[in-house]
User: Fold Chloride channel protein from Galleria mellonella.
Amino acid sequence: MFSEDLRIVSDSSITVCGHHVVPMMQAAQFTASDAVPLVDYVGDAIIFSGMQDDDIPGIGQYDDFHTIDWQRDIARDRMRHRYIVKKRQDSILDLIKGAHDAWSGWVCVLLVGVCTGVVAGVIDIGASWMTDLKFGICRQAFWFNREQCCWSSNETTFDHGNCSQWLTWPQMFGESREGPGAYIISYIFYIGWALVFAALSASLVRMFAPYACGSGIPEIKTILSGFIIRGYLGKWTLIIKVVGLILSVSSGLSLGKEGPMVHIASCLGNILSYLFPKYGRNEAKKREILSAAAAAGVSVAFGAPIGGVLFSLEEVSYYFPLKTLWRSFFCALIAAFILRSINPFGNEHSVLFFVEYNKPWIFFELIPFVGLGIIGGCIATIFIKANIYWCRYRKYSKLGQYPVTEVLVVTLLTAVIAYPNPYTRMNTSQLIYLLFNQCGISNSDPLCDYNRNFTDVNSAIEKAAAEAGVYRAIWQLVLALAVKLVMTVFTFGIKVPCGLFIPSLALGAIAGRIVGIGVEQLAYHYPKIWLFSGECSTGDDCITPGLYAMVGAAAVLGGVTRMTVSLVVIMFELTGGVRYIVPLMAAAMASKWVGDALGRQGIYDAHIALNGYPFLDSKDEFQHTSLAADVMQPKRNETLAVITQDSMTVDDVETLLKETEHNGYPVVVSKESQYLVGFVLRRDLNLAIANARRTIEGITGQSVVVFAGAGNPPTGPPPCLPLNRILDMAPITVTDQTPMETVVDMFRKLGLRQTLVTHNGRLLGVITKKDVLRHVKQMDNEDPNSVLFN
Amino acid sequence: MFSEDLRIVSDSSITVCGHHVVPMMQAAQFTASDAVPLVDYVGDAIIFSGMQDDDIPGIGQYDDFHTIDWQRDIARDRMRHRYIVKKRQDSILDLIKGAHDAWSGWVCVLLVGVCTGVVAGVIDIGASWMTDLKFGICRQAFWFNREQCCWSSNETTFDHGNCSQWLTWPQMFGESREGPGAYIISYIFYIGWALVFAALSASLVRMFAPYACGSGIPEIKTILSGFIIRGYLGKWTLIIKVVGLILSVSSGLSLGKEGPMVHIASCLGNILSYLFPKYGRNEAKKREILSAAAAAGVSVAFGAPIGGVLFSLEEVSYYFPLKTLWRSFFCALIAAFILRSINPFGNEHSVLFFVEYNKPWIFFELIPFVGLGIIGGCIATIFIKANIYWCRYRKYSKLGQYPVTEVLVVTLLTAVIAYPNPYTRMNTSQLIYLLFNQCGISNSDPLCDYNRNFTDVNSAIEKAAAEAGVYRAIWQLVLALAVKLVMTVFTFGIKVPCGLFIPSLALGAIAGRIVGIGVEQLAYHYPKIWLFSGECSTGDDCITPGLYAMVGAAAVLGGVTRMTVSLVVIMFELTGGVRYIVPLMAAAMASKWVGDALGRQGIYDAHIALNGYPFLDSKDEFQHTSLAADVMQPKRNETLAVITQDSMTVDDVETLLKETEHNGYPVVVSKESQYLVGFVLRRDLNLAIANARRTIEGITGQSVVVFAGAGNPPTGPPPCLPLNRILDMAPITVTDQTPMETVVDMFRKLGLRQTLVTHNGRLLGVITKKDVLRHVKQMDNEDPNSVLFN
Assistant:
């Protein structure tokens, strides 16, 4: 029995109801050197959940859709840690347990990294096979994708990536590869498979795990900021998200697998954390693992471990101590290492879109790069506004009741429109890679149809006029840009797993490539303009359109997500282009500023606001002048629900619990004086009274509930009920004159759930996180009632 | 006059002494829409420093060696911001002022970046010229270093980097280049120049800027955590540090220029921030610029912008909002870009120690890499313990009185010992580069004396036995390791600018190279061992000793500084070796764990503790169980110095100010009840009373000082003195039962200077940052009196 280990350190123990007790916070203070045993309050040692076997179920846990109390959870963890450190000296088993506890953080992130890498490999392999299935099948082994199939056939020359082993669908039906008949058969198979995949994906999500839809990043941001959504990171969500993601990516919809990867990694983090009670049973500690998992998710999505850590730090995480930084890095690195060992794409380069340009960028090019940033910011703002408008319409109209039908309609439209245009037909990753590339000797795409002869592999590429192929490609790219923008607006938010990193990158890469070709042809036709007179006056090609595509991609992604440092780092890990940090940063900055000027929120924050999650953004500064007194509950003419420290009966307390719905109640000296003593949670109060009725004899509705106080409460029958063990004697308080900016700061930095407002020591009211969020909304002229949860 | 713009927003204004007034914190609440002018308290609108011309000098500033109050400074900045936003509508000039204010953060970091890049270029050029001056001089132009001299001479073959234009000192005296006479002349010149440079450096530091010595990183960490050291970042420190750094680096002492670069960049940040009142006049905001400057310093030191930002985040900074992350990145990038444009070394590669290895690392090599990590951790711990022992001896003995003599003795010893060994004679950066390199066809150093023939440039390097040259080199390296370790112990802490990044890297690189050669020869002689049976069974060389040098360098640096993520990122930006993140991380982790196990602190934290700076580390967790009541002042049997809200006279207050030395006083309702009203700073109280005596007629020693309260204070002559404007009505309070872990957390996260301790609303005591620091020391069984400052 645990309470035998308790000893008093300081002399501030209190006698309540004839018992000798320690106040709640002080119970943490047992050391081995003190000698007053405290065995006489059996039954209410309930805060030590996680350490003893006989704890009341549910204590220390939170209800669904509630905010967690970081301070309380962290305090619980430190207490548990001290208990283990102390026990360690008792026996070898305890020593091993202690060592296990000390290492469990590292072991847990190691497991998360390994599992994330493996799952990412499975998704990559599955998605690439099924994407190719839309076009044909391998004669030799149907489970090979086109690339593997052609490798195994040992042929030396491939025709557009096709080989004799790879059967396209027209070939299966005896048609030739080319010709109108073949085209129609291919078209039909393409649409057919897309619809099958999409229908499967949407049905799975609808039937088994509704939380598996979307990218998951807005919800994960909210969860990491200290909110409970049960099942959002559970095993069913994980399984369905993995399967659904493979299907939805393969269906050719305008979506990416990068955002959902973060969700999948977080699910793995959540599930694996249950192996380690230190994390599984403590919501605040669990979020350290989830932050690391989010980093691993981005790391495997882009092969960018450092970018992943910075993404987790900048975009997703809320509470990010430096220990977490180091563990996140470890986790991200392990995940990337495992994925690279699996090598699902079978290529040599360790980066996804490896680029190598012959020419460095020239200083004057910063002007078009900033221009691209502005264009990217505009595209991103249009996308966000249109997407939010459509999602709101879906939410409040009948459309929301037919998710599978919606997915099928969007898939059909996407497939029908996408197939005829080669740039929308191909895999989006391939498109980005093609656009990032520079036109070399081996590139036969129409995009590289320049009037030039390659005489020597190593000689510089000469400047050349664009020919018909390039102009045709530009028109197709403009069409592709419009189609992708419109389809992505309708796609992001449908009920299948879908991310928008890849679509955003593609939009930007298309815009960038078009601008790049424009600047290049300008430099060719007007080499005398002062801008081009320096570096571009020689015959060599001085402008690389591929670099513009890369910069444009960063600009749009930056505008959509409002990432900054992590975006630049991801881009340079993604492409291996260390030399291009300055252009990338110029474009990302321009895009972010344009985005901030045109619309305040990034896509994730906009979706958080749309769903009414209680997310207190740590990036926005609170600029208003209100005081704590303006925000606190109750407002004027209402009375505050309080409990007195030693004068209310069990019946009084139960009536209060029935009549009000607060999550907790301040405890005061007396109703008249209102001097603050502490704070007690509704949940604890309910559990403690129920427990006392069961275990302590003679407790009736007339028993006086005693929380604290050195006075002499009634000792006669019925016996009084000591509840000092559930009283938090160290609630965070502010005065009524405290500016709200300070209060908001305290909520953010200390992770508060509520704070008590006092004036000259007297309790005036309570401010909860919900009150703060509503106040922020109100001050920003938004609807305060859009904050939905506690 | 500013106070005419004040308007009351809420209705909680108070009537004091017959005047209509607003409490301090609420004064922030002026908006344009309200209409009650408040012109009747002229003279005490003193908190609006930074906005008006007639503010009392010194208000809002801090004394030297004092801790800043982050909450107060941030609140002041928000108030100033709101004032500017409001004024913006008044005139075009104000609009421009507003725009200037909004942009000033970016402009300031831009300037800091540019200046840091330029200064770094000057230092690099100066140091490389003067380092070569120890060996000879350029015939053509004495201001060329050896490399520039030989370039300008257009010779095609160089003999060990020498050319006919470059005159070594023996040649100047008519001797040949080789031979015993030449050796002696070279030796004497080497020692002579070294002593001249060191003497100059030490004298300059001693005479003009004592703060310019050392690396400066411990002090900058302390300053960034919210401490004032006047002059530490001033212009004289800057100038002397730059000149002294060039001299001390050139003198051949075992020190680097990387740490001082951070100090130099921070000086630039501090000086340039005075161009922008937003930052120059607000200590909390200024630290945002200083964080960015620190990032720029590391960025130019290593050519590693991302590593610089992470170093600033992980190691140096304390308060690091995300906006600062983005600005730091910008600043670091600009600085690196400028330095690269100056191109002081004239080489092509954008990284300092560019490496390219033919072979990837093999999985089993993780074992020696982790071994290197452990060796690195041990070397680092020996270094830290010895260095701290010696610095403490210097501090408390007569040695400290002869700094210049000490520098000369250390320089003489270093020069005498270093010259005979080629690996200690050469520039430390060159040594590191040599050790990192793999033995290719062009490398003629004894380290590459293997029994192999290069038949083809492109063929793989074959495995080969080491010959005599390698074994001789190993002995020289072992000696060099011992000499460098001992000399660095005595060097770090002498009174010249000196950093220890480069010496640490060199120590590790030597150890790593030796281990690497050992493993390589093991693989050559015993290729059948199971470890080597896989990748090493072919004839090709499978072990790259240069990689071991790189890993060893990371291990020692990691052990010395306890950097983690930033270390790995710096190493990979430094070498361009993206493929080697996993080995680097394995070694860095092993080294950090060994270091943490053997001695708790990194070198910077150890120096902070040695100097007694009030630095509250945000990385250490507070593990003890004490309560706020155990830490607060006054202890039992002492009384707390308080001021009552409306019953003390000016004489009473002045007596209290004379008799006590606290930095601030709590204001209570009355001495009897002790209910807390607010907090007033000593400095403000002094200034306000002095000001009132000057400006308000009839104020005498008998005037009652009124801070707050709705009561009726004596109105008769002498008139009472309203001081509500300097009263902070929103002090942060905790209850006496609050665990110290929560209190420490609040001090860290909210940047508090003090907190008030209450029980049931009554004031019990005060906890200052110094109390917290002393308590932490006491709990860790260290001397609490080693905390020196407030």
In short: Confidence is low (pLDDT under 50) at residues 1-15, 20-56 of chain B.
